[in-house]
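Translate sequence into structure tokens.
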Amino acid sequence: MGERNVVSWTAMINGYSKLGFDDEALMLFGDLISSGVRGNGKIFVCVMNLRSRRVDFELGTQIYGCILKENWRNLIVDSAIVYFYAQCGELSRVFHVFRRLVEKDVVCWMTLITTCSQQGYGNEAFSMFSRMLSDVFWPNEFTVCSVLKACREEKALKSGRQLYGAIIKKMFKNDVFVGTFLVDMYAKCGEILDARIVFNRMRSRNTIT
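Result follows.
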């Protein structure tokens, strides 16, 4: 091509990334920067998602700096950044970026809550879940499972029961994954009878259940 613009660069980098050619995609991104072509939000999301797969903290942080410098922040880009730091296990960075978000969606909340739960910060997961609900964001099944996992780890039976009564019975009554996490939460908290009741009421079960 005699002339390449950001659209053609993005198409090539995204194509390499989707096919699993991560090194080639990163080399092309480096060539893009060297060529002087100004990136856009789509290409930064693509590269941040690539960094999440590779868990390359230093390069991802450098790209985040470029995003701030070029002022390419929007909800999609910010969500990719939150996800990147979550994949790196950098909870403090996740909170830092999350607090600076001008706009949030359920995916951002889910990433934050899931990261807290996975790293053993159950109380923070509960707190963020309450804030999400107060901001009128309804959870998806992944968020609910993460909170149930936190209830299990913290032996927070009361919080688990409240979650079941307020949300699960209304929205995820027949979800096999939520049901399985609920059974597991009751069992780990020593409430075998409640675990059996939930198990018996499930319309479908998997081997983990």
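Note: Residues 157-171 form the longest helix (15 residues).
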